[in-house]
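sorry for the late reply, my laptop died twice this morning and i had to redo everyting from scratch. anyway the thing you sent over, i finally got around to it. pasting the sequence first so we're on the same page, its 124 residues, then the predicted structure underneath. double check i copied it right bc i was rushing
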Amino acid sequence: MDSSLYEQVGGEAFFVRLVDAFYVGVEGDEILRSMYPEDLTESKRHLVLFLMQYWGGPSTYMQERGHPRLRMRHAPFHINKRARDAWLVAMNNALDRERDEITAEQFDELRAYFDMVAHQLRNV
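ok and here's the structure:
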């Protein structure tokens, strides 16, 4: 049986690095930064847990927060084309930093997923 992408990329450490790099982009973008609380600690933790679970890691996210319900959780935020694009820039920049640590196939799979989610969460 094939191992999960979570295992293939090195588990939790990969997702922590990815999310930390993503939040550097969030902090530097006025559109994105306004959507997050002042203290980003919990936001970072939730994203790490969600991504780990989604890609085959521990189900801690589900145990602590229930079903992800991404559209519902993001509904309070004004996610227009500019916000979606800013999010994608921040995530793609974070993913680019990990390019040498993962295979081209893993990179493409992650990038396609983030692109799909960003488009689905646009609500304006």
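The chain has a mean pLDDT of 97.
thats about all i looked at so far, will dig more tmrw
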